[in-house]
Design brief:
241 residues, alpha/beta, six-stranded mixed beta sheet, 10 helices
Amino acid sequence: MIAMSTNIFKKLFLLARPAAGKSEIMKYLASLPLQERISRYHIGKLVHIDDFPMLWSWFEDDDLLDAMGKPRLHTDAEGYFKYPYLWDLLIRRIGLEYKKLLRDVDLVDTTVIIEFSRGTEHGGYRSAFQNLDPSLLEEAAILYVDVSWEESLRKNRRRFNPEKPDSLLEHGIPDEKLKHMYFETDWHELTRRSPHHLEIAENKVPYAVFENDDDLTSKLDRQFEERLQNRLDTLWSLYKV
């Protein structure tokens, strides 16, 4: 039997527009027995780094400061970042969290999944990739969950639970803000020249695309499982070379 550590992704970036299905994929993978997850999807023990909880903590801090009559640090009264570079700070924070993992946790047989969304309005994936820590790019791969703007909007509306705005699976963004930040994405522009790899900071990072305009991540049925396995098998064939 192949050892776990030789048959799994070490780092997997899970990227998409908001509400595209990233969190549902993550929840599904976490629900599987370890050996099944490895054999079907090349995903080992799971560690998840997501910039949404970091971002949401800034909103909460600013609301608390506002209630104290103090200046907001990160966002204006409408909830937009005061400074565009804060999007890049979140990416650098992901790198910091990964370095702390390397220091404190035995990552043998582990797949670290790094999740975030970026729209062109705040620098897009181009700016995010430029701010990734080099250690994140070694032995890394990308799974991009591809949905149209219209599908992102529909699912964002459907999933929003005002009682749990901080929830990974139930948070949402007002329509106007979603359009402002995520109507345009530079993913297809960045990947146009190569169907299999992205060049990021002198690293050749393989990628695959999980098409989800038919919303398989809300069904999690056999068709979803087959598509996810197919896309991750394709990605694995690029990754292990």
